[in-house]
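Researcher: Please predict.
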Amino acid sequence: MAEIVRMPKMSDTMTEGVMAKWHKKVGDKVKSGDVLAEVETDKATMDLESYWDGTILYIGVEEGQAVPVDAVIAVIGKEGEDYKAALDAEDGAESAKNEKVETKTESPDKTKEDKQEEGKQEEAPKSTALSDSDMEKMGVTVVRMPLLSDTMTEGVIAEWHKKVGDKVKDDDILADVETDKATMEVMGYAEGTLLHIGVEKGQAAKVNGIIAIVGPEGTDISGFLNQGEAPAKPVAEKSADAPVAENGEGTKEEATLTTNTSGDRLKASPLAKRIAKDKGIDLNQVSGSADGGRITKKDIENFKPAEAALGLTSKEAAPAFLAEKHAAPLPVYVGEERFTEKPVTQMRKVIAKRLAESLFTAPHFYLTMSIDMDGAIAARTKMNEFASVKISFNDLVLKAVAIALKQHPNVNSSWLGDKIRYNEHVNIGVAVAVEDGLLVPVVRFADGKSLSRISAEVKDFAQRAKAKKLQPADWEGSTFTISNLGMFGIDEFTAIINPPDACILAIGGIAQVPVVKNGAIVPGNVMKVTLSCDHRVVDGATGSAFLQTLKALLEEPVRLLI
């Protein structure tokens, strides 16, 4: 009988895998234990082995494709066997499961009349909602709250410049809108009569919500209003190179507000602002010819820089005796906005999910302490004269943390929801940066290992992590985590707890700073560490006591040998 091969769960955090490479193809003979393919998980690229003898009859996943855990990826059976029956059976079971989930249960309290009424409601034809496009065909323009900034979600109507019944032109300002960054003007870009105002002064409207309707006088818009919030055109993202309509003064999304040198509001259409920007024209020097002194495209085209440089408007002539005051205009620089997007890797997906869950689930608090590293520096120098492998400061910190955890078991613990686990063993996770993100291999029983052994293990983990050769057993089971960014010149930082640990220690670099010793200011070597604690498990006093022990061990490294 044909056997279904599914995507296995290769780590405790894996939800899907990417088929990195197939080592077999359809028609190949396989034995139990043969490597079928390489699967990229969130932490490493691992071998997928066969548990059956037979022939590969079907492959359902192409190289580079991601599939969820437990999804069908291949079929193995006897040569020539009809594998489609096995796949059909699999599809049938999945369909039955989905149908079972979607099946509605009727309430036993429903009467015959209730069911008949429901049937009538289901048979009743649904009325078609009018869209903005339908309204435009009737000569009616629906004015919606524009997206006036990249962070705007709603706008407050600060002032209406028109009221219902007023005649409006396509470049008239309908209202002032207060956004999260500024108060800006909104234009209707339509001619006709203001038929409806949807948001009163002082009220807020969501981006793309209806704020006004303009159309022929007397048009009945009650049907459109009675259907509730009408379906809107999708809000398009603004582009730096977006064209400006030739028959209007810009798009609805563009702001029309700036200020002059005295701080007063300066009115200019979006198209006028765009042309002025391209030509390097200062709008403060342009005189507007539209209502209220508003600057239009025509004013920009008729603008004479020479006259403006003399402090005159475009309507004034420049006296000859003032010509020497002319100043050269600043050159205009035009840049280009560019970016590159890449799909999120499996590793980065899981890092984002787990750390977000940790930060927003576990109540973090942080304790920072400065440690005098003069003694550790001297001890490390002496140790490396005899050690078989080079001992780093990170190795010294790891060993000191392991010993301190034995003295403070509350820090070496985990929150399990209805209980707290106090670990008697010390397994320390060491954060290692790799190309796609971060891995945390675990040094097990670190309190009982020598500094040379710890150093060798950490170096081996780092090499295998960067080569994606770590196995699940290498990164599971930590009781405490260390993250060291000191080698990158970071003085101090805070780290997010690596669940299920209750704490993580962030290690900064060793900096030479003036310190006070025996009443005198002398140069010293100081390292700052920050302990991130899960307040459900560890209290401030508990975390502080742990750091005090750690400080004593590092400032007198001989204690590490006792």
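Model: The chain has four domains: 3-96, 131-219+248-255, 256-338, 346-561.
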